Amino acid sequence: LTGHATERFTTVVIGAGHAGLSASKFLGDLSVDHVVLERGEVANSWRRERWDSLRLLTPNWQCRVPGLRYEGPDPDGYLSMAEITEFIERFAKGSGAPVRAGTNVTSLRRAGDDYRLATNDGELACQSVVIASGACNKPAMPQFAAGVPSSVEQLTPFDYRGPAQLPDGGVLVVGASATGVQLAAEVQQSGRPVTLSVGEHVRLPRTYRGRDVLWWMDASGVWDQRYDEVDDLTRARRLPSPQLVGTPERTTLDINALTAMGVELVGRWAAVREGRALFSGGLRNMFSLADLKMGRLLDTFDEWAQENGRAAHVGPPERFAPTRVPASARLQLGLRNGEIRTIIWATGFRPDYSWLDIPVVDAKGQLRHDGGVVAGSPGLYALGLPVLRRRKSTFIYGIEDDARDVIDHLGRYLAGSG
Amino acid sequence: MTTVTNGVNVQALLDARTALKEAPEAAQFTWRASATWNHGVHSTINVQGFFGLGQEQSHLEGSVFEADHPEIFAATDKGITPIEYLIVGLASCLTAGVASVAENRGIQLRSVEATVEGEHDIRGILGADSDVRNGFNDIKVTFTIDADASREEIEALVAQSQKRSAVFDALTNPTNVTVEVA
Lengths: 418, 182
What we know:
heterodimer, A: alpha/beta, 7-stranded mixed sheet, 9 helices, about 20% strand, B: alpha+beta, 4-stranded antiparallel sheet, two-stranded antiparallel ribbon, about 30% strand, globular
């Protein structure tokens, strides 16, 4: 392990997912000498950190990265994890990205105007760095999880592969984002009674007026809304993923659908006290907020269709039944009486910047950046974070515009400092 | 945006939000009330000072509240019952929230009425049935709002007001309470 000379590149990209590979594509177009470091393999998170039944939330026709798009037989379907992995591998090969797999960055620090990276395979030096290691490196769990009795098994979406691995008996799924509603449905259908703890969530129908709801997000321009036009950017960046699932039947998976399957609803999990889970009594307002917000979004779609002469090309406007409030949602649940055998924490994810030895992370563990330009560290960039530059940034479909803008900025930085 | 005059200084609140994001220690407040027992179940509660923005603060004037129980509880009824003070808090907090959110959204209010009903099975506090809780079983708030806004916009005001309400949170979520003898 000694004797490695420090290798030098103009730019180092960290992460070979769709974001890092898109950065590489545009760096290549600018003839910027670079390398893409990948801790595992290309598309590592899709390969290893997702459950078996997961499919993308975006329809196949939106599966698009710079220079490559889905051209298969099912544009309205949703790719499985094996298929998206294959798609991103194809992107890596086709774009000729200089990927170094199995290279884990253990430290990134500044050295004068330069950057130094320590990896399991030696030291690198460069002028600029693109962090594309993703926003979902670690499951986020509330602190009171530590107070759950040890007789209850606890899983995160990183541990969960499918319902067969769970013990028989009740399952408490915490969180009603895309992850929470998908796992609640799958586990309930396996015969294990599910209780779902619901906090703030984003309700969406899978299809609206005959089109995929994400077609509407794209066509109406909602997805293109820029980060500097969003009212409350902090909130937009923390928004849970919408209640969507990619299935061949294009079914809607909202709270009403879960109620119809027999899932029991409780409020946001607030505390553990004496072996009991205590839930908020504010469930009704969680539903009101989500229903009202969905209604406003559908109004936006209808207005757009009307103003742009699209109304005749889509189905008639629809309005969906309000979320049904359970007659009496339980406010507490014993965790020692055997009713709940497993808890699945679908309480979100957070990025891991433990290797980042530059003070650019805020007290909440988020990178301080302005549209992917990291604050206070010239030459340092980020890609693939929620609402990085646009509402669509979170989605594979959103990476191309973000990557072009960020690498443009990086190119100008290199020209200025060259 | 048209200028509305609900009388809430939203700009001051938004400025405070920005300032306190960077100075979380200044955002730590302590609210205080002190009760003095009079006789029977009648007590008098004084509220004046509180702590916030890093120092002792004071209301312009102190407030005095009488708490008692009604005659059908065999009490002297010199004031409302303690549990009624909870719904006083909830009604005023949500109403303040409606006004603030309306101001921020440019919605002119003409009238806002909130009616709060708290369902309470008093067998709990009497110890008549150990399966009955002491506190409210259910609370219902009904708003009647006249404003320059659609029904959906008014519903959104009420929803957002709950989302940002201190008393709504305090009633719907568990809170650690320490009671000790000095």
